[in-house]
Amino acid sequence: MGIIAILLIDENGNEQAAVSGNPHSLDRALAHCDGPDYQCLRFIDPYDDTCFNRLQLSQLLVEWDAVEKRLTDPEALAVAVEVRDLIKRGLAAPHTYLEFYGD
Predict the structure, then answer these.
(1) Helical H runs in the chain?
(2) Residue 1 confidence (pLDDT) above 80
(3) In the chain, where are the structural domains located?
(4) Which pLDDT score, from 0 to 100, does residue 68 have?
(5) What is the pLDDT of residue 32?
(6) Tens digit of pLDDT for each residue in 36-62?
(7) pTM score
(8) Burial annotation 39-70 (CB, 10 A radius, 16+ → b, else e)
(9) Is 99 in contact with 7 (CB distance < 8 Å)?
(10) CA–CA gap between residue 83 and residue 40 (Å, rounded)
(11) Interhelix angle 74-92/54-70, nearest 10 degrees
């Protein structure tokens, strides 16, 4: 199926924020992030869960901005903006993690 949820969680696994749009809209764009230029995004598994810690989020943000610039689908773009906001929130708060839940 693909990505079913994207959450910002704390160290205890409590949800701090979540993407409200349809995460599936990003599946096609993320499928093309499998090369060496994507040190973080290439590890998002659409069929399992992927977690990024605060130290990884700065690199993830660089890669995410590049992907976001290529999006043409309005729904995918709206979700990408939400994800970028979660990444920035995670960078600003200690003991937070960005989780991609796959199906």
Answers:
(1) 27-31, 54-70, 74-92
(2) no
(3) 3-102
(4) 96
(5) 92
(6) 999 999 999 999 999 999 999 999 999
(7) 0.94
(8) ebbeebebeeebebeeebbeebbebbeebbee
(9) yes
(10) 14
(11) 160
> Of 40, 35, 34, nearest to 100 (Cα)?
40
Mean pLDDT of the 84-94 span: 97
Residue 64 to residue 2: CA distance in whole angstroms: 18
Map tokens 């977690």 to a residue.
Answer: 51
Dihedrals phi, psi of 34, to nearest 5 degrees: -115, 5
Residue 95's identity, in one-letter code, is H
Phi-psi region of 2 (alpha: psi -120 to 50; beta: other; left: phi over 0): left
Q: Please give the average per-residue pLDDT across 61-85, as a whole number.
A: 97
Given the DSSP bridges, would you call strands 3-10 and 96-102 parallel, antiparallel or unpaired?
A: antiparallel
What secondary structure letter does DSSP report for 44? -
* Contact partners, residue 11, CB within 8 Å, separation at least 6: 95, 96, 97
Instruction: Note the pLDDT tens digit of each residue in 6-35.
Output: 999 999 999 999 999 999 999 999 999 999
